[in-house]
Each structure stands twice: as structure tokens, then as C-alpha cells.
Write a structure and sequence with these properties.
The complex is a heterodimer of chains A (253) and B (280). Chain A is mostly helical. Chain A is built from twelve helices and no strands. In chain A, helix 3 packs across helix 6 and helix 6 packs antiparallel against helix 9. The two termini of chain A are 37 Å apart. Chain B is an alpha/beta fold and 280 residues long. Chain B is 36% helix and 21% strand. Chain B is built from nine helices and nine strands. In chain B, the strands form two sheets. In chain B, strands 5-6-7-3-8-9 form a six-stranded mixed beta sheet, sandwiched between helices. In chain B, strand 1 and strand 2 form a beta hairpin. In chain B, helix 5 runs antiparallel to helix 6, helix 6 packs parallel to helix 7 and helix 7 packs antiparallel against helix 9. The chains are: A mainly alpha (253), B alpha/beta (280). Chains A and B meet through helix 7 and helix 8 of A and strand 5, helix 4 and helix 6 of B.
Amino acid sequence: MRRSIAYILFLVLLLVAWEYFGQRYPSVRLMTSTPSHIVAYFGNHWSALLEAFATTGLEAVLGLLIAFVSAMGLVMLCMRYPQLFDALLPIMVTSQVTPMIVLAPFFVILMGIGIASKITLAAIMCFFPVFISSYQGYRTLKPSIHELGDVYNAGQWFRIRRIYLPLVMPQMMAGLRVSATLSVIAAIVVEFTAAQVGLGKNLFLSAIRLEPDLMMSSLLLSILLGALLYGGIALIEKRWGGWYLTTRQADGN
Amino acid sequence: MNEAAASDPFINVRDVHFAYGDGPAVLNGLSFNFTLKKGQTLAVVGGSGSGKSTLLRLIAGLLPGQPQDRSSGRITVGGMSPVDYRRAGGLSFIFQDPTLLDHMTVAENIALPLLTKRAKADHANDLRTVMEVVGMHAHAQRLPRELSGGMRTRVSLARAFVNAPDALLLDEPFSALDIAWKSRLYGYFMDLRTRYNTTSVLVTHDIQEAAILGDHVLVIGNNGQVVFDKAIRGIHQGHARIAHLNDHLKEMFDPVIGPIQEELMNAPLVGNGTQPRPFS
């Protein structure tokens, strides 16, 4: 409680200082805008800003969703056929040493300046963390977990659905948290390259047009988007991850 | 079961060699031929590295698990190959680590053998019975990580009996428990095996445990061969009923353990109360 009060006080102090120096020195306002200018800008342009926010948000969420579904599908296939993972590993490593954002122009040329190119790159960037951490979780299961399935003649599908997937959930969620941030980065970077609407486009334009109000409002919305995605994943984990998040412990009898 | 079948060797192990991958031989020509009556327990005693866990996994048909594993010799269980016997569905196994599924409640963990595809459907009553025998019915909805080591072992014991198994293999499941817990779990085990008339093979390094639970004790020596093979009059055979054994154990242990246990129970938990994991 005391800490959050201190935190809010610090924030208010920062805003006041920002406003003061922005009003006093035009060069500061030119670089960073001021809180009052940002609020005013938001008031005048809220529908355009919201459209950009929604577009970038949609790209990030769809990219993340596609990555999640395909990564978990492949994890399930690798649980069934472990040889598949060994075969895929070199491809995975190659794809990871490629700095993914260099692919942005490629996807724009391939798919145009609409949302498809953004969704694609977001999906590609989000895929690896979910896949590799989930599969790593599977590989580190105790051998007796597998033997348990053998002893009771559990079918492959039963094992994957009722045993393996729930047990890798902690690692899967860790991968998803990394991917949530990556999805926003990917969408914005492709928008830098070319876009009709989007926070990335706003940011790019604000730099070449020297519009600090546009830059700061888009920047704040980008942070909000990342926070919303991260928070959404934390909520999902809280709802279904109770069995490993619980802090209740043995009472010794 | 007719007389002839009853006297057939239940488990037959003939000249078995085994090595994991290209590692050294774990079992080197182990041979025994064994007749267990229904409901009896064979206790196999051996030191660390004597290959007793490997032997148990061979009997369960869990090994060889990798194509690189080298094995030879012949094992039959109930006249079948181990894998066939296991697939027929009458087998249970208790692991050294309780091996509970952390995302399932106690009740779901115990019911696991009934959920898989070869499970027989008529065990609804057994679920209640085994939970009551091991005293976990009051904890049915708790999660494994909320349980102490002794409780986890009780859950794994209940799970092993829920499918009313004909044969049960135990890989020293009691070795990590203190003596007070051991004596209680011996009681639960004997109660359950009598109830379901289960034939069991217990692997242990503890000679006392073998003497208490076994009808027949077999010792694997450092040379990898059977050095002792004898039907014994287990402590429990002197008593007509399991209840007497529990009384006997209580009588034996309580004067010593009671006060210690009381002391331990009343002592405040050290640190944050986290249980050390026995096999991590």
C-alpha cells in the first residue's frame, strides 16, 4: 500500500516535471511533447488513433493465436513421434539465428501492405518460444510418468491429452508470455515497412514529419497493447494453472 | 483356477542378461524359477546396482524400452510374455517415486488406471474402497503438491490397487519414508493385497521389509546371481488376520516412535514448511 502510494507520487512528479520543462523549453516539447499536448491530441484524433490501435492489436493477437495453435499442434506430433523433433531441430536453429525482422520487407512484397504480412511475421516470431519451451517441458518429464502410461496401457491420445499437455502447461505459458511481447514487436516492425493503418505506421510517420504528439500517443498505445496481451495471458494462467500456481503446501500428516 | 495351474510357476526368469544401450551389463545371467500362490508376495532383496529395479521392469514388460537395449533370456509371467501379461490389463506397478500427476486431484490420480483404454468398467466401488483403506477419502479433492511424502505414497498405493490387479510389482516404494510411516503403509499394503488377492513382487534393499512383507525371499548377491532363495514364514503369517499384524507393529514401534512422533508433530515447521522432494 505504502509502496503504491510512493509509486503514484513519483509518477505525478514525473508528469508535472515533464509538463513544466515542455512548456518552458520548446526544444523539449519538440522531442517529447508534453502531457497536456498528448491529451489534447488524443481528444482531436481519437478515432484515428483507436483504429490504428485496433489494427495493430488484431495483427498481434491473430499472429499470436496462429503461432500458439500451430506450435502446440507440432508439439503434440513430436510427443507422438519424437524422431520428428530431431529432424526439425536444424531447421529450428537456422530460423532462430535469422533476425526475423529482416523478413518484414519480404512479407510486404509477398502479401502486400494489408494486415496479412503483419500477421504472418508475428506468427513466425511467436512460434518458436511456445514450441521450444513446451517441448522442453515434455522432455524433462520424469521417466516414471511415461512408465505409468505403459503400465496402465494408456493410448497415445489419452497420454497427450490427459497427461502430457496439462503437465507442460507451466512451460507453455512461459513461452506464451515471451511471445505476447514479440507479437506486438513484429506487427509494429512490419508496419514501419509499409502499412495502411497501424501504430507502427504512426510512429514511422511521426519521425519523418516531426510530430511528437503523434509519436507519444502511438507509443503509449503500443505499451498499452503489450500490457493487455501480457495481462490476458496472466489471466488465462490464473484460471487454468491453479494446480502449479497454488502456494498451499503439505501439512505433514 | 485348478490345482495344476496354481502350482505352475507364476514368474519364470531364465538366464536373463540385460544392458541399457551400449552400457555395461546390469543383469548377467540371472535365473530363477518361481511359483507364487495367488495372493502371495515375493520379496527380492539386493544392494544398489544389483539390477533389481531392472528385473522388475523386465517382469512388467517395460524393458527393453529402446531398440539399443541388449537383452536375452526368457521371462514369463502367468505363462505369458511380460508385455502380453501387461496388455491383458491385470498388472499394477508402484514406482519408487510416487509419480503422481500434479494437475489431477488425489481422487483423479487414484482413478487413473480406470480411465485408460484397457480398464475394466466395474471398479467404481473399488475407488471408494482403496481411498478409505489408505485414509485418503477426506483428501480426495486436494492436489498432489499439497501432500506430504507419506500421503503421496498412500495415494500411489491406492492407485495401484484400484483396478483390482492380479499382479502388482513394487519398486521399493517405502524406502524414502520414516519408520512410523513405513509400518502404517505396510499395514495398508497387506490389507489391500488380501482384499484383492493380489500376487506381488516387491523389490527392496531392506531385509526387514522383505521379512515383514514377503512369503518368499530371494536375495541377489553382488555377483548378480541368486544367493538366497527361501520361503519364509513372514511375520504376518503367525497371525490369522492383518489387524493382528498392525497391532503387532504398533506394539513393536509405538513405545519408541510414539513420543518421537508426538514431538515432531508438535514442533513448528522449519522455514516455509516446504517439503523437500525425496527424489529430485
